[in-house]
Amino acid sequence: MATGLRQRVRALNAFLGDVYGKQEILRAGRVPTALVLENEGYRAEMVGVAPPGGVYTHVAGIDMVRTGPDEFYVLEDNCRTPSGVSYMLENREAMLRLFPRLCARHRIAPVGRYPEELLETLKAVAPPRAGADPCVVVLTPGPYNSAYYEHCFLADEMGIEVVEGADLGVENDVVFMRTTAGPKRVDVIYRRIDDEFLDPTVFRADSMVGVPGLMAAYRAGNVALANAPGAGIADDKAIYPYVPEMVRFYLGEEPLLANVPTFLCEREEDRKYVLGNLDKLVVKLAKGSGGYGMMIGPHATWDLREEFRTRILAKPGDYIAQPTLALSTCPTVVDQGIAPRHVDLRPFILSGGKEIRIVPGGLTRVAIREGSLVVNSSQGGGTKDTWILEDEGPGEEPQPAQSQSQTAAG
Prior knowledge:
The structure is a single chain. The strands form five sheets. Strands 10-2-1-17-18 form a five-stranded mixed sheet. It has a four-stranded parallel sheet with strand order 4-3-8-9. Strands 11-14-12-13 form a four-stranded antiparallel sheet, with helices on one face. The protein is an alpha+beta fold. Helix 1 crosses helix 9 and helix 6 (114-124) packs across helix 7. Helices cover 26% and strands 22% of the residues.
């Protein structure tokens, strides 16, 4: 799986560099031009802008599902601002404290180095003038954001500052951070703000959480942004079916990881099939996230299926559909005791220049409600610690770990 994840992230970064550059895959007809250039996730402001090291998605979360003993599928790609890594780290900490003997009996690959490896990845894409010790910050929209805890947690673990837009300023295309000792130049920004709020002079003029002039500094090569603006076009659900073709086109290899078969409702033939099988399919918003705008046909009411029929007919390009997969389950602590619950896995992949690192673990998300296939935390899902067992050598120090037979959310 690790090799397949690296392959997929390499292809996604190549795709992003291409669609904001020569657009060879579009000219070759491998991906429909309109699907990319008319997509709201495509940022024309990034055309001709080459990020440091050619890396657009420095932190990727590739959601995986298991449907059989040796059957794994990529459910979706998260190339913008994938979240949840703090749960991965805290779940391990909790397991090591609660089950020290269990953890000591196994050689569990440690995940605790993630903040250190993230910082190394971010420093690797700093502008050349930054020298050996670039200034890295985490840019957050503030305490009202649902992932604010993670922003602060990661900044603290990396030993860097967490800042809001008002803490930064741009002068002569250089970004500075306000400190008690005066302005300090910033070289790398790990941004946890959506594209449209990054810079009110370029994107949404009403943004109160962005930094005016940030994109000018980025274009001038004076600051690195991770992940790069415009990376979201690569994780659009309508683009997802074409990722295997990206692997073939850019890498000259066959994809090692399989996609879930996907129907694009904008295609007439696909749309007819979807409308005739709404009771069997999962219908998703192409630009949706967090489990919102989704219908699971076998579990939906007749009224809800008819509502989605109306939506698809009105805006077919906004929807995709996939078969309802029989996701694997793990024993989970619930109110009634221990019961099976459906899970998926989000490995985190770090890309900084030539090196691609994969955390030896990941975020296992759990559908806490009985029979539910929706694992998103925004929809009531929980999380589990995830173990990668090493064949030789010491594993995790007895601090935590949890196998997938336990749950921190139970």
